[in-house]
């Protein structure tokens, strides 16, 4: 890793020498593209399906993509040939380890199914890479602890999560600022609308298509026969690979809600999670689906997450997608489409939401595009707007909601010890034994 570290150290030293207001290169995608190849990050993209390809196109504005990888060889080849990604020059792999072992790659972008995120991410940190990883970052409560430990150990590396709502100033950042400024009073309840999971099946089992390494795609998950609907976008409707909507949209909306009420630090979180009002599309026994050929994540639910201060967060499939903050002085609703409520109409945050507030939310960095912040932090250091440590706090709530829903009961959580209390069956869902050969490193 000598060449890579020397190169990164040079860039960081350049930022210091240039002074507080001058960076070694301008912070926009076009400006990066005009920068000398010696100063642009060198990138490997692991997972280049629809979302992965979209991210790869964005990364290409800030650096040079040297390698692309996907368990389905056709996708890797397509990304290599794409003029906005590999430009016909990048190396194409099906085994992600080929990307991590290369000393000439500084940054990896991980956009795989959820059950692969933490293993690849930790191994990337061990290999000396900066990491961009799509949400949700983790599959289990234990994985939250494993990735947090790794980020603490490799703190010199920038680790960034694709929760892009943290970079939407006019909606989500405005809502967070309004709550944190106390303009709504004490927050008594939050409704987090994340829609319900898909319903489907039974599906046909078959041989995997040519070019797809099904065993590799499964990774740590149990070995099962190939079903087309288990793969690609539909993987999120199976608890074997995801948490359904609890983690798919929860990683966005629960994240914003948790950030806004200041419950995003280690040792914080809900103390009681009520999953009694939950339904799944197939029959369940002891928290597990009784069939293996149909979508199995929750499709109809209202999971109440109670915090020690009395605030209740309702993570629900019912109603509009977005976040409703209700305080003792007023309430607002925010989604990707709009932000509404009397406090917005009357501009209660007038002269209280500007550059200074945006900089504070960006942890002292200038407000800018989501990936701009990632690459700025690689050079300047410091935590990005979407950091591991706050994200895993939100993911704790998401995973707890899924566990409570699977068991259809109330579970107790100790945020300080990060353990499920007084319920051995529920506590067993905190981790999962991976298949042999796909263990997650513990650092």
Which labels suit this protein?
alpha/beta; 2 domains; six-stranded parallel sheet; 443 residues; Dihydrodipicolinate Reductase, domain 2
Describe, in plain words, how this protein is organized in 3D.
- There is one protein chain.
- By secondary structure, the protein is an alpha/beta fold.
- The chain has two domains: 2-164 and 371-380, NAD(P)-binding Rossmann-like Domain (Rossmann fold, 3-Layer(aba) Sandwich); 167-354 and 388-430, 2-Layer Sandwich (Dihydrodipicolinate Reductase, domain 2), CATH 3.30.360.10.
- 33% of the residues lie in helices and 17% in strands.
- The chain has 16 helices and 20 strands.
- The protein has helices at 2-18, 29-33, 50-59, 73-81, 97-100, 117-126, 141-153, 169-180, 214-218, 245-248, 250-260, 342-345, 355-361, 370-380, 388-407, 424-427, and strands spanning 42-46, 64-69, 91-93, 107-110, 130-133, 159-161, 187-193, 205-206, 226-227, 272-274, 278-279, 284-285, 288-289, 300-306, 312-316, 322-327, 331-334, 339-340, 410-414, 419-421.
- Strands 7, 10, 11, 14, 15, 16, 17, 18, 19 and 20 form a ten-stranded mixed beta sheet that branches.
- Helix 7 (141-153) runs antiparallel to helix 15 and helix 11 packs across helix 15 (388-407).
- The longest helix has 20 residues, at 388-407.
- The two termini are 19 Å apart.
> In total, how many domains does the architecture comprise?
2
* Backbone CA Rg: 22 Å
- CATH domain class name of the largest domain: Alpha Beta
- Return the CATH architecture of the largest domain: 2-Layer Sandwich
Sheet/helix structural class: alpha/beta
What would you call the shape? globular
| Low-pLDDT ranges | 1-25
